[in-house]
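fyi for ur records
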Amino acid sequence: SVKSNNVNWSAVVYRTGIRDDILFVASPDLIGSGFFKNAGDTRRVGLDVELAGGTDHFAWYASYGLVSGTFESPLRLPSNPAVNDASTEDGDVAVDPGDRLPGIPRHSLKLGGRYDLTPEWNVSLGGIVASSRFFVGDEGNDQEPLDGFGIVNLRSAYVVNESLELFGRVDNLFDAQYATFGVLAEVEIDLER
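which gave:
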C-alpha cells in the first residue's frame, strides 16, 4: 500500500492451492438438498488493485479484481440429466483440470466518487461490474454461464449535527436486471394453483 500526492494505492497478487478441496454438490435426486464431496485439488490465482484519492471537495476510488479459480484434478460429480445436458446416462458430469470453479467471476470492478456540495451535504455515485460466472452444478463448464452485470448506486447525506445525519440511497439506479448467483437444479412446480 502506497500514498503519493493525494492518491493511495495497493496491489496484491496471490496464489492458493488446496489439496483435496471440499465441494458442496447439489443432490441430483432430492430437490433443494445436497452434500459435501472431496473435489481433488483446486487453485485460485488472482490480482487485486485498489486506488483512492481526492481533493478538498471530491473523493474517488477504484478497485479491480482478477481471479482464476480452477479445478486441478479430474473429477466426476453426480448431476441431473434433466438440467445438465453434459450428464452421462449414469448421471455423472466430467470435470477436467482447468475447468473454472462455479460462482466466481473472473473480473470485478468497483468505481465511485463523492462530491461535497457543502460541508454538511454530499452526493456519492458508485458502480459495480462483474463478469460472467458458471452456475453451481456446472462444474464441468458445459452450459452457458450466467451473464455478467453492471449496476450504479446513488447516495446523498446531510449532516444536521454531530448526533444526526440524514441520508437517502438508491441502489441499482438504472434498474438493471441481473443475477449474482445461479444453480443448475430441477425446479418443483405446483400445477394445482
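The mean pLDDT is 89. thats all i got for now
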